[in-house]
UniProtKB/TrEMBL annotation, chain A:
The keyword Transport applies. It is found in: Cell inner membrane; Cell membrane. CDD domains: TM_PBP2. Keywords: Cell membrane, Membrane, Transmembrane, Transmembrane helix, Transport. This is Polar amino acid transport system permease protein. The keyword Cell membrane applies. The chain crosses the membrane at residues 20-43, 55-80, 86-105, 186-205.
UniProtKB/TrEMBL annotation, chain B:
This is Polar amino acid transport system permease protein. Pfam families: BPD_transp_1. It is found in: Cell inner membrane; Cell membrane. Belongs to the binding-protein-dependent transport system permease family. HisMQ subfamily. Its main location: membrane. The keyword rRNA processing does not apply. The chain crosses the membrane at residues 20-45, 57-78, 90-113, 190-209. Keywords: Cell membrane, Membrane, Transmembrane, Transmembrane helix, Transport. It is a multi-pass membrane protein. NCBIfam families: HEQRo_perm_3TM.
Length: 215, 222
């Protein structure tokens, strides 16, 4: 029988936290890219494209993330794709993040006064250039706080990937708990690690929010 | 790959799925009510004269909001027994959901309380109402009306998040899905159907809450 010292527990948890951070970062980056696509569709001039994006967002916001992960994890192999927990986790969180981010940014785009579009077209800019040079910079500036707030939510959501077998913080803590029988200590430390990751971001989001209010 | 989807198992499973859905609704009903009541107390305490109460509630809110629900659930279900508190899975789930929801709704209710104009409180005091009456009869109803839409969203989010309580063997919707797919070997179809059930439940719950709010809160919810 191996004895686990407190340091062994903490060290293993911190090692596992690296995967939580990596997964959050990759999913946030992926979610940003796909989210931009969904955003463009959501504000498209074509009605059916807008509709599609609306349903896409509604679907991801109206079902549990756990179900989305299960569907990818069990569904993609049916299409003949070999899938590992890491792939399903990244894909699931990316798609989910894209829906939430697109909806946040759409709020920003809508808050940009219509005159800005007019000004853009009177300068002879075509649609994409209006978006890129005039509308999106303002929309992103306005939605910085909720975007950071969503990143916190995304970091917490990575905990669910433990259920489909991805070795991140929670899954590692389950294993450590099974070896040490010290759930109070183990899950307490896990909570502290998540808190250490999320709290600075929450603070940062709060700061951005206050700064936006001042302007 | 010649995989054919098969929903033949569904006939026998409908009752189980319905039972699971009922359990999910029960969990969210209890924790939504308890969470709302607690968050009214929390929001009032957040505006208390005593700094200790204010800070304790602020710390609680920050801690819950910055840790995953799954970890909170494991801490309550697996961790508390080492302090001699052993909970039934359903009780642990309700406790975790209530505590989690309270942290979010305390902020929401607080924002509502701040949105009520000060003159309302002063007018009520001038009419001779006692401070507690002022809070319950004048400030709170107006605050609830303002925050009702946000509260509704939070309840729906909590309902969706309650899927993870299947991990401590509470027999709710996700747990029944796990059991079904283990029996039928039709994992994708099972989770597909259950996802649709969740989608219907989140849409239905939102409609129900909005309709209920229109009735209860005078003047309706915008």
């Amino acid at each position: 029988m191996i004895e686990f010292t407190l340091w062994d527990i903490v060290r293993n948890l911190l090692m596992a936290a690296r995967w939580t951070i990596l997964l959050s970062a990759v999913a946030f980056a992926g979610g940003t890219i796909v989210g931009l696509l969904i955003l463009f569709m959501r504000i498209s001039k074509r009605r059916w494209v807008r509709r599609f994006a609306e349903y896409y967002i509604g679907l991801f916001q109206g079902t549990p993330l756990l179900m989305q992960l299960f569907l990818l994890f069990f569904g993609l192999p049916l299409l003949g794709l070999r899938i590992e927990p890491w792939t399903a986790a990244v894909l699931g969180l990316t798609l989910c993040a894209s829906a939430f981010l697109a909806e946040i940014w759409r709020g920003g785009v809508q808050a940009v006064p219509l005159g800005q579009w007019d000004a853009g077209s009177s300068l002879g800019l075509h649609y994409l250039k209006q978006l890129r040079l005039i509308i999106l910079p303002q929309a992103f500036a306005m939605t910085r706080a909720p975007t950071v707030g969503f990143l916190v939510q995304l970091i917490k959501s990575t905990a669910l990937t433990s259920i489909i077998g991805f070795e991140e913080l929670v899954r590692t803590s389950n294993a450590i708990n099974n070896a040490t029988f010290e759930p109070f200590k183990v899950y307490g430390f896990v909570a502290l690690i998540y808190f250490a990751l999320c709290f600075p971001l929450t603070r940062y989001a709060k700061m951005l929010e206050l700064r936006a209010l001042k302007h | 790959m010649g995989y054919a989807l098969d929903f033949g198992w569904l006939d026998d499973a409908i009752l189980l799925i319905a039972n699971g859905a009922a359990m999910t609704m029960f969990l969210i009903a209890v924790s939504a009510v308890a969470g709302t009541v607690l968050s009214i107390l929390g929001a009032a305490g957040r505006r208390s004269r005593h700094a200790v109460i204010r800070q304790a509630i602020a710390a609680y809110v920050e801690f819950v909001r910055n840790t995953p629900f799954l970890v909170q659930l494991f801490f309550i279900y697996f961790g508390l027994p080492s302090l001699g508190i052993r909970l039934d899975p359903v009780v642990a789930a309700i406790l975790a959901m209530t505590l989690n929801m309270t942290a979010y709704t305390t902020e929401i209710v607080g924002a509502g309380l701040d949105a009520v104009p000060k003159g309302q409180k002063e007018a009520a005091l001038a009419l001779g109402l006692r401070p507690r009456q002022v809070f319950i009869k004048i400030v709170l109803p107006q605050a609830l009306k303002v925050i009702y839409p946000a509260l509704t969203s939070q309840i729906v989010i909590m309902m969706l998040e309650s899927a993870v309580v299947s991990q401590i063997a509470v027999r709710e919707l996700t747990y029944e899905a796990d059991m079904l797919q283990a029996r039928t070997f039709r994992a994708f179809e099972t989770y597909f159907i259950v996802t649709l059930v969740y989608l219907a439940m989140s849409i239905g719950l939102r409609r129900l809450l909005v309709a209920g709010g229109n009735r209860l809160l005078s003047g309706g919810v915008s």
